[in-house]
Amino acid sequence: MKPLRIFFAASILAMSSSAAAMATDLLPSWQDGATKNSIISFVDKVTKIGGPDFIEPADRVAVFDNDGTLWSEQPIYFQLAFALDRVKALAPKHPEWKDTQPFKAVLENDTKALIKSGKRGLMELMMASHVGMSTDQFAEIVDAWISSAMHPKTGKLYSEMVFQPMIELLGYLRENGFMTYIVSGGGIEFMRPWTYRVYGVPPEQVIGSSVKVKYEMKDGNPVLTRLPEINFIDDKAGKPVGIHYHIGKRPVMAFGNSDGDFEMLEWTTSASGARFGLLVHHDDAKREYAYDRKSHIGQLDRGLDEAPKRGWSITSMKSDWKCIYKYQCQAK
Amino acid sequence: MKPLRIFFAASILAMSSSAAAMATDLLPSWQDGATKNSIISFVDKVTKIGGPDFIEPADRVAVFDNDGTLWSEQPIYFQLAFALDRVKALAPKHPEWKDTQPFKAVLENDTKALIKSGKRGLMELMMASHVGMSTDQFAEIVDAWISSAMHPKTGKLYSEMVFQPMIELLGYLRENGFMTYIVSGGGIEFMRPWTYRVYGVPPEQVIGSSVKVKYEMKDGNPVLTRLPEINFIDDKAGKPVGIHYHIGKRPVMAFGNSDGDFEMLEWTTSASGARFGLLVHHDDAKREYAYDRKSHIGQLDRGLDEAPKRGWSITSMKSDWKCIYKYQCQAK
To answer: Are residues B249 and A13, on separate chains, in Cβ contact within 8 Å?
Structure first.
């Protein structure tokens, strides 16, 4: 094939993609209005070849928090629900847990005692339920849980409680040449088994907290064993660090919902050139949950104060989104 | 544009790419023979749609060691040459170095004393020369060095001492839908500033050893400061761990040259399905260097013994490569 003909064929494809984008609204679950317009005009600006704000596809990095940004995080972080289920499943092998906190609290569904065990208690639960197996075994356990466990309020699979407007946004950005990374305080290995299926984000674009793993031989085969030792906490000031280790580029767009995402948005939007920051505000008690400044989960306080002066967009789940969960949007 | 027309345009492109591959030898610096054939037949096999060994593009991960695999590593690792140059450049600000080992040895070009300082001495040099600045500043320092420093034997830029056959291999694999990752014992931030330019490998596909970095405000702007503390050593059994953290997928092909790459090849090739491992053997004293079992740098001992029974290919630089460095190949 001659170069000219390749060019011609490529042009047809390029035109078709751009024409399709103009004809089709790729963000149908977003209400028409300021927030949606700000996203579209930003993307138009940085993808306009020859424009003053053009950004090369190689540098189009968008980072998304997960808990509270791509899916719900109430009444408890979904990964904590996973940990509690795991503790219950493992209890028969640990008779001593009946009399030991914080395990006793879990087995007796004693929320007060569980809260009283504090961060240290939660860490004990995470370690007891998350380590000691190979990475492959852990992926299987997560996969089985995410395919069956139900949310206490909606009765839906946790993986169905993802925000349809954000799923559309991920796709819209990828359509415009962005790499879409997840940068979550949650466990990297808790997310990777299902993020591609649910969000279209492959494992290599998932960044999260991690435990140490060790390479060793088991029955003549190499395995990576998960150890009871924190490797990295991908939260708050850890998020820019995680981004740096994994991507090595400063993001162009950042999306979060809590003060745990503050530094990620700050790191992203204080770079030179066109930058975009957005916080999802949980203000929809009817369709999801309403919480911000005083919440123990997903607290959003400093972010609400500083977003306006930093030029960050605040998305109201109540007024900016036509529907919340995928199954609600499909029912419309 | 109608779907059928898009399909047609895409087909033209797909055909052109496949036709071009058949018509053009993408590995022209490789001698025709067993090694080259084994690479091509493996790639044909795993990319053949509907074939028994077909691997989805999303799972086509190829990992490459850097030192001794993609560029030379003699008479000393190039990053160590960088560290020594940095120590000399910083010496005026550290008068105490004149009387303190291992710095004294560096400033007096006393190789014997330098070797005598051992691993601990080297670590001191690395820390003194590699930390205390922001990640952006470090990238600038590396960029300036790699653009100007000359190799003592060839008088060429270090970035010109990359192996042309391996550059071709990287491109050939990418042409066949592979993601090409670097997985090096060298510093991740020492490589990232130039790997895209030199190897076509973007920062997010570079895995390496790292120091801890800290997010902090400097003059009202956030920076990541490099700290004098090891974060991760991406060597030996650390390589499968680094691959796991960064990619979260088990590679399909692995390329190395020393026993530091053994576990990476083992991890890759002991997975189920079609897998490929290759060791570059430095046996060309005339055009590059000859070393293996007894070398302090890039020791290849266990790998030479076990490669045959593990089905790993051994590439002889002398007989499998028509030329070594890019500038030699271009001169032909």
So the answer is: no
Beta strand residue intervals within chain B, DSSP E: 61-64, 179-187, 206-218, 221-232, 253-256, 276-281, 313-316
Q: Which chain A residue lies closest to B3 (C-alpha atoms)?
A: A16
**Full domain range(s) for residue B39:** 27-76+161-210+232-331
The answer to whether the complex's ipTM is over 0.85 is yes
Q: How far is B197 from chain A (nearest CA, A)?
A: 13
| Nearest Cβ partner for A247 among B5, B204, B249 | B204
- d(CA B276, nearest CA chain A) in Å: 16
Peptide bond into B102 cis (omega under 30): yes
User: A82 with A200, same domain?
Assistant: no
- Give the tens place of pLDDT for each residue, B216-230: 999 999 999 999 999
- Residues B49-60 have pLDDT tens digits of 999 999 999 999
With contact defined as beta carbons under 8 Å apart, do B263 and B237 qualify?
Answer: yes
- DSSP three-state, residue A235: coil
Judged by CB atoms closer than 8 Å, whether chains meet at A248 and B206 is answered as yes
Amino acid, res. B224: L
Q: What is the CATH number of the domain that holds B52?
A: 3.40.50.1000
- Choosing among B12, B230, B267, which should be mutated to test the A contact, i.e. which has the most A CBs within 10 A? B12
**Do A261 and A249 fall into the same domain?**
yes
Segment A22-78, tens digit of pLDDT: 568 999 999 999 999 999 999 999 999 999 999 999 999 999 999 999 999 999 999
